Amino acid sequence: MYKKTRAEGFGKEVQKRILLGTFVLSASYYDAYYTKAQKVRRLIRDEMKSILSKYDVIVMPITPTTAFKLGEHSDNPLEMYLADLFFRSG
Are 86 and 64 in contact (CB under 8 A)? Predict the structure, then answer.
């Protein structure tokens, strides 16, 4: 029942991303990925602070292409991943 109810709340794409994140954060990959990502995150954050000290607003796209129709790329996982390349929530 646990497996069934947990899977119902998420689509296949979300399930893949959750599994990938869990894999990357597993003990054997923690230093290889997470620690390096935190260092890169710090560099990006510092650069953004520097930029925002000079400017009030930065306007930029969050997707590399225009929107596609519903279901248009559902058979191509790579295109789905690339569609939200620049998106970050939270």
Answer: yes
* pTM check: above 0.70: no
pLDDT digit string (tens) for 28-78?
777 777 788 889 999 999 999 999 999 988 887 777 777 778 767 667 777
Question: Do residues 23 and 33 touch, judged by C-beta distance below 8 A?
Answer: no
Nearest CA to 15 out of 72, 80, 66, 68 is that of: 80
Q: Report d(CA 77, CA 84) in Å as an integer.
A: 12
Nearest to 24 by CA among 11, 38, 10, 6: 38
Looking at residue 14, its amino acid is: V
Q: Note whether 13 and 77 are within 8 A (CB).
A: yes
